[in-house]
Amino acid sequence: MQLVIVESPAKAKTINKYLGSDYQVLASYGHVRDLPSKDGSVLPDDDFAMSWEVDARASKRLSEIAEAAKKADRVILATDPDREGEAISWHVLEVLTKKKALKDTDVQRVTFNAITKSAVLDAMANPRQLDMELVEAYLARRALDYLVGFTLSPVLWRKLPGARSAGRVQSVALRIVVDREMEIERFRAQEYWSVEADVTADSPPFTARLVKHAGKRVQRLDIKDEATASAARSAIEAASLSIRAIEKKPVKRSPAPPFTTSTLQQEASRKLGFTAQRTMQAAQKLYEGVDDQGGLITYMRTDGLFVSPEGIAQAREVVGQRFGPAYVPGEPRYYKSKAKNAQEAHEAIRPTNIARAPETLRLESDLARLYELIWKRMVASQMENARLDRTTVEIESADGQTGLRATGQVVAFDGFMAVYEEGRDERQKGAESEEDDDSTRLPALKEGATAKPEAIRTEQHFTEPPPRFSEATLVKKLEELGIGRPSTYASILTTLRDREYVRMDKNRFYPEDKGRLVTAFLEQFFARWVEYDFTAALETRLDEVSAGDLNWKVLLRDFWTDFHAATQAAGELRTSAILDHLNEALGPHIFPDKGDGSDPRECPLCHEGQLSLKTSRFGAFIGCSRYPECRYTRPVASPDATDGSAEGGDRQLGVDPETGQPVELKIGRFGPYVETTPPGAEKPKRSSLPKGWTPGGMDLEKALRLLTLPREVGPHPEDGKMITAGLGRYGPFVQHAGTYANVSDIEEVFEVGLNRAVALLAEKRAGRPGRGSAAAPLKALGDHPETGEPVQVMAGRFGPYVKSGKINATLPKGMDPEALTMEEALPLIAAKAASAPAKKGAAKKPAAKKKPAAKKKPAVKAKATPKSA
After folding, report:
1. What interhelical angle do 471-481 and 261-272 show, nearest 10?
2. pTM of the predicted structure, to 2 decimals
3. Active site (catalytic) residues
4. Under CATH, what is the fold of the domain 191-254+387-462?
5. d(Cα 175, Cα 523) in Å, to the nearest integer?
6. The domain 140-183+470-577: what is its CATH number?
7. DSSP H or E stretch at residue 107
8. Cα Rg for the chain, rounded, in angstroms?
9. For residue 630, what is the DSSP state?
10. What are the backbone dihedrals phi and psi of residue 393, each rounded to the nearest 5 degrees, phi first?
11. Most buried in the list 128, 132, 481, 613, measured by CB within 10 Å?
12. Over the stretch 415-455, which tens digit does the pLDDT of each residue have?
């Protein structure tokens, strides 16, 4: 019996069909080990020794694999053909070795770029040994990410309340988003005017635009005001115009190459509206195989453009059959990857069988749409060029002082455009090229013909700032800078959203205040490690490790020496000193010059205090120095922010039509809220803004809806007690007799009916253990590094909390309990322990003193001088 080990059950099922009864195929379900989420998992002072822990969910599967391995004559590691796949194989091999499941068993490694019968059988016939250079590159990357996270994140927690974490690559991606936002906020719109005319020249009318006025060439932004535009209009009306020249130029357009990981994510975002994560999930299913159709595409994590000869031949055959010989180029097209290192440069993403057209497959929506995109791109990449005739018509006055130009094009042969055209990213208005205006078709014209303007239009425009990043453009930027690798883009973007450092609005990234603050902090105290060039250079060094040109521990020592010193220096600074630095660094952004000579930091409410950056447990904000006498606050964003998120702090939204009382938006130390005081009430009625609602987007209608909460849904059919719906610290909910059940979003709070509310409450009660029974933890994080007590994430009556011994610390609003890590949990536990009142007569310290914890190796944060290379 031969044992084949793969990552996923879907992949195992597909491969099992291709192999005979002599093979047993088992899945590891991805990574089986990881570094524990606690200090000491990587020890720089012990030559970067790494402590691995078997995932609790993988233990049973590994035992099954080990039992099968003991009976097998050969063990075949058949995980994915990239660095991560090599790492999974190494982890499985390490576990099997420790379990003594191999003895004299032959262990081999096979890889295949597509899950088809021919590819799998060919791989089985050509096994190799585990590539330890790829494994070491994985170890170096994993150690770097751990060291940055577990060394830098605690500094952030202590110095910047509200910050969640920092990461080696995610922090650089965040800086890209923040830098673009600051560029937008610095932008000042520039007025310009366009002048166009509908012209005839013994022909039907066509449109021409002004390119010459008063003898000078006119660029897009040259006409600054209406007076100049009117003068140009008058000049055209008075001029004797004729066609001076007609230039016809044949143009060829070549197809885009087949997809790599990044270009697939970009195009799926542009054309399908998919996030990077959604794209990769659908691509994974297409790769592993659907039903009995086998693997439908080649491996989807690649930066290579190579296509096998079989794939090229298939594509050319399909083109000839579907479109005819004229669409097949004389020679096959070969594309060359720009990747500096070929460690992940596998075949480009393409259908495994290009003859299998999209319309012949029955797939679920996402898979069908993505497969069609991949199929069209691959087929188009092997088609003939498109040929276009581009025409430029120059119209000029007899005195040469005024000139117009008309451009247009005709598609002489559509070529690859018959199947596919690559999407385009949003461009800055006012920065278009002349080619953007040449899509119209011009009538037949003759040189020397008299040109008569029939209608002249002048139109005012304003330049626009560079667009915010979409997922497509951010992935493109990361790739251009050499930051991250194909397998990391989706997780980078997901992490930024999960940490609430950014938010998505209309498929664009907007940095949140905490994201801005983290970026400013890192730029001030860890400038080198968030530099684009440094991060890209580190990626190149990791590629050198995978190529066998650099020892992975030399790379780690070089990085750790300076980084550890920088974290120690930042950790010794007082929070007040850090805020002073950030106030200075962010000053031009958060306190821009008003242009009237007044102090940009003067409080606009009391006109006596000075505005400065402040922090609270909920994050950073701008506040007045005269607090609490003056309670003016606003977000960190520039007061001139274009999305309105920082509109001057407190403001009146309008008047409640029922009470006649004003409704105000206020931004307090704990976030934005709306407020009104009903007639006769002693205290105002308030409601926080729900997640996703920004201060800039608030209006009277939204505020009044929030102020109706909590609302009565109806009496419960069992006891007649009222069910209410409202917005709480942990989000929108329905409540009955002390039981709270979350609802999907804030809109459902306003609409939820009695039947739906009763069902939600019943589900919540069914999931709650009875009295006297111990609640099962949502997640086990491991043992506390100081007390040895287990640290667990629990579901509580009033929301999730983290528990260690007798300490229960509630999770902050918005923190995902499933994503909570040990490094995030420890500060919450410490803060709760410090705030707990001492019990009467208690003289002892926490129970950990009774039984000292086992002596541990020095933690990563301990002062240590790394060994020299």
Report:
1. 160
2. 0.69
3. 299
4. Topoisomerase I; domain 3 (2.70.20)
5. 9
6. 1.10.460.10
7. strand 106-109
8. 32
9. -
10. -110, 120
11. 613
12. 999 999 888 766 544 444 444 445 578 898 999 999 999 99
